[in-house]
Design a protein that fits this description.
- Helix content is 0%, strand content 46%.
- The strands form 2 sheets. Strands 2, 4, 5, 8, 9 and 10 form a 6-stranded mixed beta sheet that branches. A 4-stranded antiparallel beta sheet has the order 1-3-7-6, with no helix packed on it.
- The chain is an all-beta fold.
Length: 127
């Protein structure tokens, strides 16, 4: 059974930093591209960033470029999201996800292509 577990969320002031982590079990972690997504209250879920299986290619969305960095440690079966210079508009539930039916050498923000999801970790940024 595939299981993804996010951690690292919390309450932080604007301008602060958080590091999210996502651990996985039940599948071969290194074989697949992964992504971080977020959903704010009353809004649709959106892609934040994703990373190829090797970690060599990353695809951050425009709103987080230069502030958020996605990375992965295949030996530890863990995906990370380093979030710096946080803004109140970054407040959301953050989810990690795998996509197993598409190329692992690239990725993108299309939610329907991700078939395994974690339960989410809440990030709240105060002004």
């Amino acid at each position: 059974q595939v299981q993804l577990t996010e951690s690292g969320g919390g309450l932080v002031q604007a301008g602060g930093s958080l590091r999210l982590a996502c651990t996985a079990s039940g599948l071969t972690f290194a074989n697949y591209a992964m992504g971080w997504f977020r959903q704010a209250p009353g809004k649709e879920r959106e892609g934040v960033s994703c990373i190829s299986w090797s970690g060599r290619s990353t695809y951050p969305t425009d709103s987080v470029k230069g502030r958020f960095t996605i990375s992965r440690d295949n030996a530890k079966k863990t995906l990370y999201l380093q979030m710096n210079s946080l803004k109140p508009e970054d407040t959301a539930m953050y989810y990690c996800a795998f996509r197993t039916a598409y190329s692992a050498d690239a990725c993108g923000p299309i939610i329907d292509k991700y078939n395994y999801w974690g339960q989410g970790t809440q990030v709240t940024v105060s002004s």
